[in-house]
Design a protein that fits this description.
This protein is an all-alpha fold. The chain folds into three domains: about 60 residues, Orthogonal Bundle (Helicase, Ruva Protein, domain 3), CATH 1.10.8; about 45 residues, 30s ribosomal protein s13, domain 2, CATH 4.10.910.10; about 50 residues, no CATH class. About 50% of the residues lie in helices and about 0% in strands. It has a two-stranded antiparallel ribbon with strand order 1-2. The longest helix has 18 residues. It starts with a strand and ends with a helix. About 10% of the residues are buried. Belongs to the universal ribosomal protein uS13 family. It comes from Paraglomus brasilianum. GO terms for molecular function: RNA binding; structural constituent of ribosome.
């Protein structure tokens, strides 16, 4: 059965089938079913036409699927732009909500789509690749190069010194 562009299995319970929508979990699905007066053991194929219409109307008023994904991306981008702790954690690919990082941070790094590499000094990074200047400028914009050491205890040069360093390297 198609409902708002999502294919739902007919043989499943309604509360389970509703979890096929991005943005609806089991708890929200149960609340939706109770609001529309659908029994918890009712299957999707057993719904009447008025119940399906009420369900479609209620779901169309919620933020779901691609619209919800867009809102989440916009929120993350907002945190990154204003330089909050959450935004910095997203930039680095670390867990955002206080989880440990010594071990068990693999999932957050996978979800952010990048592997984390550790740079030991700005000078070594500068000589390592031609895109090093872009990388360092991104880190400065994210607020990681504000002091002589970043939060990992690794030494970085202030931006003024980096610009002087770039000019010396480019003259070679």
């Amino acid at each position: 059965m198609q409902l708002l562009g999502v294919t739902l299995p007919d043989n499943k319970y309604v509360k389970i089938a509703l979890t096929y929508f991005y943005g609806i979990g089991l708890k929200t699905a149960e609340q939706i079913c109770s609001k529309i007066s659908i029994h918890k053991t009712c299957r999707l194929s057993e719904l009447t036409e008025p119940q399906l219409n009420r369900l479609a109307l209620l779901l169309s008023q919620m933020t779901l699927e691609s619209e919800l994904k867009r809102v989440v991306k916009a929120n993350i981008l907002h945190h990154r732009q204003i330089g909050t702790y959450i935004g910095k954690r997203h930039v680095m690919g670390y867990p955002v909500r206080g989880q440990r990082t010594k071990t068990n941070a693999r999932t957050a790094r996978k979800l952010n789509g990048k592997s984390i590499t550790r740079e030991y000094s700005s000078l070594a990074l500068l000589h390592s690749s031609p895109s090093a200047s872009d990388h360092l400028l991104k880190q400065h914009e994210a607020g990681f190069l504000t002091g002589p050491r970043n939060f990992n205890g690794l030494r970085y040069l202030p931006l003024v010194k980096l610009v002087n360093l770039f000019s010396r390297v480019l003259k070679r």
